[in-house]
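Sample entry (158 residues):
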Amino acid sequence: MKRILFSIMLVSVTALCMAGEVVRVSAVYEYVSDNPNETPVQAESNAFAAAKQKALEDKFGLDVTKITNTLMTNRTEGSVSKSETNVFSVGETAVRGEWIETIEEKVLEKSFAKGFWGIKVRVVGKARNYSTEKADIQYMFCQGCAGYGYACRFQGWQ
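Predicted structure, serialized as tokens:
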């Protein structure tokens, strides 16, 4: 029983140490719907969600991740050499903070024109930063992959 209690306390203390301090955040956001079938309630909900996202981005920033893979293949068929290069790239962004509690949600302006909603909202809430670690750049090289001669592959995170 003592081991279980000690384990729970250790996990709780570790979680508290990794979480950031809770701070007050706010943002004003102007939302324009891109869906003519969107209801006013859906438009307001999307506006408040985007405002919360903006408040977190303004306070804590973004993590930007880019993964690039390059595959180069050289083949010899008889007396003819063939070379092929393929590049694949994926980008992603993530907010560094977490929304904890909503204190206020207020619609400042609302309009409907040409079948689309325009809504200006203000949100106030509590949020906290969480720590993120950046990954190191990794390189992978291989020769004679899959019987196609020589291949080289680069993979990196930035």
